[in-house]
Every structure is written in C-alpha cells, then in structure tokens.
Specification:
Length: 382
Amino acid sequence: MRAMTYRGPYKVQLADKEDPRIEHPNDAIVRVTRAAICGSDLHLYHGMMPDTRVGSTFGHEFIGVVEQVGASVESVTAGDRVMVPFNISCGSCYFCARGLASNCHNVNPNATAIGGIYGYSHTCGGYDGGQAELVRVPFADVNPMVIPEWLDPEDALMMTDALSTGYFGAQLGDIEEGDTVAVFGAGPVGLFAALSSWFMGAGRVIVFDHLDYRLEKAREFAHAETYNFGELGDVVLHLKRITDGLGVDVAIDAAGAEADGAFLQHVTSAKFKLQGGSLIALNWAIDGARKGGTVAVVGAYGPMFSAVKFGDAMNKGLTLRMNQAPVKRQWPRLLEHIRNGYLKPSDIISHRIPLEHIAEGYHMFSAKLDECIKPVIVVSEE
Ligand SMILES: NC(=O)c1ccc[n+]([C@@H]2O[C@H](COP(=O)([O-])OP(=O)(O)OC[C@H]3O[C@@H](n4cnc5c(N)ncnc54)[C@H](O)[C@@H]3O)[C@@H](O)[C@H]2O)c1
Ligand SMILES: [Zn+2]
Ligand SMILES: [Zn+2]
C-alpha cells in the first residue's frame, strides 16, 4: 500500500509499505477514504515528540470502509463505512471503565501516562496511522462506529478528533451560564472549542491568535470576539482591561507546546531543548483567568516543562483540567448537535489534497500558507 512516512524533522514522503494484517482477533483492517492532518501532527513533523521513528506513518484522524475483520469482531463487518476515534482503547480496563478512553491502560507498552494514539510516535504506542491506503484498527468492537446514513462523511472525519477535542475543551471549562470564555488558538481545535462554549451557556467568547485569516474564521464560524495577540503588547493586561480587571471565568489553551508569542520560550525550547516546548499560551491562560476560575488545556504538551506559572495558579485558586480528548464519549451529543443543524463541522476544511501530495500538504499546513486551516487528505473514493 501507499502511505505517508516520516523521514525526520520537516521531511515526510509517500512510500510503499507492506499492507497491515489482522494481528489479533479483535482487529479490523480499514481502507481509508479520507484522512486529515492535525495540529498534533505538526508537533511530530517538527520533531518535537520523543520517539517518533523514521518510517512511521502518521494520521489519527480518518474514516474509511472496513476491508476485513478478525474472528471475534461483532460490531462492524466488511463493507461498513466507519469513523474511528483517534484514541486506541480497550474499553474494559480501570480507566476505560471510567470514560477515560485516552488513558487506556492496555494499549501502550511504552508509557503509562498516555494510552494509544494512531500514528503518534512510539510514546503513544507505536501504531501506524491512517494517512495511508490501509490501516489496522485494534479493538474494532470498541472504537470505530458505523457512520450514520444522514451524516456527511467530512463531518464524520472532523468528529474523529478536532471537533470532539474542541467540544471536550469547552466541557473541561465547566462553563456556567453567562461565563466569559477565552480561547487561545484559532486552529481547528480552538474554533470548535469557541463554538462549543456557546452551546454550554457562555455569555461571551473571546479568541486569541496572531493569524488574521484564522481570527476571521473565529468571528464567522464561532461568532467570537477576536484579538490578534501580535498587535497587543501585553496580552494579559489587555485581557484584564476588557474584563473589568477581573480576567475570564474560563481560559482554554488550544495552542499547545509550539505556541508563539514569547521569543525566550522559543529559544529555550525549540533551539536549546532546555524545556519540552513553549508555555506561553498556557501561562497566558493561567494569568488571564480570574481568581477561582478554570483553565482547560487541550493544547498538546509532551515532555518536561520548567516555566509553568504554577505558583500563580495555586495562589489564584484555579482549577486546572486537561487531557487528550476521550473522543467517542463526545459523539452522542455531537451527533445530536449536527443533526439539529447547530453546526457544520466540515465548514472549517480549507484544503482537499490527494494522498500523492501529502508532503506538500504538511508543508502548507505547517507554514500556514494559502490561509490553511484544516487540510483533508483524499485517499480513495468508496
Ligand atoms: N487534547 C487533545 O486530545 C488534542 C487533540 C487534537 C489536537 N490537540 C492539540 O491542540 C492544539 C491545537 O490543534 P490544532 O489542530 O487546532 O492546531 P493548529 O496548529 O492548526 O492551531 C494552533 C493555533 O494556535 C495559534 N497560536 C500559536 N501561539 C499562540 C498563542 N501564544 N496564543 C494563542 N494562539 C496561538 C496558532 O497561530 C494556530 O492558529 C495542538 O497543540 C494539538 O496538538 C490536542
Ligand atoms: Zn488530531
Ligand atoms: Zn482500556
């Protein structure tokens, strides 16, 4: 089969790889129709995530058609069109039983903190991902779901991560009616977090980014008030000024470990590897939240960090909530919202790129060229 393969930082290419096989009776093999590139893939592409091995295939956002199932699989069958959450989870361990599908204890021999994620380095289990013609889907009875007839396949694709994660970010904020919510990052996750905040009762939603075209999308798609942090000087001071000096009730970090906005953080992390990434968005969230408020983190962070404003978080009495999103848990409510017409997730897709051009797709998304927001990889037709 043809698959995207990692060759080293900033280098990916399409290569021929052996077809995946059923390795366990509860595996399925899925023929991918559409995959997406995620902001999380950029952390891999930039060489930020430990144990990202040359030759591995990324891609944790995909939909496709079941090609083959193992002997014990009962809930899907060959020919089914399925959407697959980015989490690989067993469905029955201590953590899965408590809804923590992203923290499954049975799927990742290389780490205990995190469960399994398709195409997300050996730190997340070493599974090959779905930016390929075929992908092995473990625990086929637990994770994939047959795409409902009425659901647009591209909307289903957005549910495999970005939408579910954005919604989860707003959920972690414990938003109460009338709350003011600030979202850091107007990428797909931030856009969905901002829109979801309204569903949960927010009275005001503010989005920060430094890319004007994304802020425009935040106004149009998520009905948010927006600010370009590159034009603000002191971002936290500005946030305080526009919230009567108090700060926001809920701050959502949807930027993660490669946030811009602080030169020193870039030098210490990207250049000298003194810490695992930039903390500026997280620190803005901690500083920008009002005392007693909540900071929700869905932006991704990998290894060690040394400059988190933890003392401020402690002394302000903040609630800090975070996780990789347990995707499937969000689906029943999200399906209801989509069916009722409250949102059209695929509206954020900016590019559709054939699998042969995936390397250009990565470059474009990474460099934020051509007003790219969400690139979808067209792998095959059904
Ligand atoms: N928790 C999860 O389950 C989960 C799932 C998917 C993605 N993620 C993470 O969420 C983050 C966002 O993903 P995405 O696909 O939207 O990525 P993206 O790269 O498209 O978007 C990130 C946005 O943040 C903006 N940004 C950079 N520095 C900022 C700052 N200091 N303040 C505010 N905005 C800033 C960027 O300009 C960009 O528009 C990534 O870190 C990704 O790894 C987490
Ligand atoms: Zn993703
Ligand atoms: Zn489990």
